[in-house]
Amino acid sequence: MMEYRFITPNRKGKWYPTLELAKRFANSIGAGFLDAAGNFVAYRDTILEERRAAKRQERGLSPNIHA
Prior knowledge:
The chain contains 1 helix and 4 strands; from the N terminus they run βαβββ. By secondary structure, it is mostly beta strands. The chain is globular and about 35 Å long.
């Protein structure tokens, strides 16, 4: 599973689980916007970063904890 975020020369966005979400919130850091047709338009010097998502641990007690 991948995660995506946009960065600008001055700001870094949050990591999102889908590219669509990253595009949707890119405007909040000044990285770009969705036009009237729903297409993403990036501002100059905007970079898309991708990374492999870390596996999340299941919630619950650690196996090393004794009651």
